Amino acid sequence: MKKIAKFLILVLIVCTFGACSKNSTAVQSANNADNNKKITVTDGMKRKIELSKPAEKVLTNYPIAVQILCALDKQDNILGADGNVIKNPLTFSPKAGSSKTAASNDINVEQVIAAKPDLVIIYKKNKEIVPKLEKSNIKVFVVSAENLDELKSTVKDLGILTGKEKKSEEFMEYYTKKLNFIDTKLKVVDQKNRPKVYMAGGGLYLAPGKNMFQNSLIELAGGTNVTGSLSSNKWSQVSAEQLISWNPDVIIITQYSGVKPQDVLNNSALKDISAVKNKKVYLMPSKISSWDMPCPQTILGIMWLSTKTNPELFKDIDITKEVDDFYQQFYGTTYTKLGGTLD
C-alpha cells in the first residue's frame, strides 16, 4: 500500500437520499418538512455555514475530509477525481479514478465553480480562496482539526451538512466508548509512573511539543510525552543529547519519519536509552494512512499506542481485531483485506 502523501483531490461525491417503501407517505411528508429547515453549522474558522438542504455534491481538496465522508457513508459512489491523485482505498472507491494530473497543488477555482457543488470542504491553510468561491455563491466549510475535540466536531458538522447525522452519531459513540474503555484501564496507573514516550516525526530528531496533536495522542494512550515541555505548534528540532537525557521508555517512529525502528536500535549513540535497551522502539501504523494525525483512524492509533505504553494492562486486547472491526463498521471492509499491517 502506498502511503498517503501531499496531493490535490477534487472529489465529486453524490449521495442519494430516498424514502423507504414502508410507510412511504409518512416518510415523504417528514422529508418534505425537513427539507424546509435551514441547516446551520459553524466551521473551523468560526464561520456560520447555512444550507437549505443536505449537500449532495461535495468537492474537497483535503484527504482527511474525504476519509471522514467515506466513514460517514461507506462511500463507493465517488464519481471522479481531478488532480495528482494517489489512489488510496480509503479515499476512492474501486469505481473511481482519473488519469488527469494537476500542474500544482493549488485549487482550480474555475473548475470548482464549473462543477456547481453544493458544498466545498477545504483545509484552513487554503482559506484565502474562500472569498473567491463565495463570490460565486458556493458554500465553503473550512476544516480545523488540530485536536481530538476539533476532529469530532468536524465529523459531527459534516454529518449534519450531508444528511448523515445518524452515521456521525454512530462514529461519536464508537469514539466515546473506546476512549472511556482506555481511560478506565489507565486509572490504575499513577500519572507520575506513566511511561515516558518519545515520538519521531519528519526525522528521528523532530518531535512534537505540547501544542501538537501527537502530544494529546500520547497522553490519551497512557504515556508522558518527553518533549511535552516544548511550546511550538510545529515539529521541533531536538538533539541526540537531549533524547539521551530524556531517556524515554518507549520510542515511536512515524510512517513519514524516514526512519525504521532498526535504525534506532542499531544507533550506538542511543544504546543506553531505556527504550533501546529494552527494544521498545515501534513503527506507528499505518501504511494506508497515518494514525497519529487527526483523521478518522486516530482512535486506532490511541488503542495501538496503549498496547505499547502499558502492555500488561491491554494484554487482553486483540488490536488486529479492533482495527478490522473499525474498518468494517465505517468503511465496509477490513484493514486486513485492504493490505494493512500493524508493523
UniProtKB/TrEMBL annotation:
<dbReference type="InterPro" id="IPR002491">
    <property type="entry name" value="ABC_transptr_periplasmic_BD"/>
</dbReference>
<dbReference type="Pfam" id="PF01497">
    <property type="entry name" value="Peripla_BP_2"/>
</dbReference>
<feature type="domain" description="Fe/B12 periplasmic-binding">
    <location>
        <begin position="57"/>
        <end position="317"/>
    </location>
</feature>
<keyword id="KW-0732">Signal</keyword>
<comment type="similarity">
    <text>Belongs to the bacterial solute-binding protein 8 family.</text>
</comment>
<dbReference type="InterPro" id="IPR050902">
    <property type="entry name" value="ABC_Transporter_SBP"/>
</dbReference>
<dbReference type="GO" id="GO:0071281">
    <property type="term" value="P:cellular response to iron ion"/>
</dbReference>
<protein>
    <submittedName>
        <fullName>Periplasmic binding protein</fullName>
    </submittedName>
</protein>
<feature type="signal peptide">
    <location>
        <begin position="1"/>
        <end position="26"/>
    </location>
</feature>
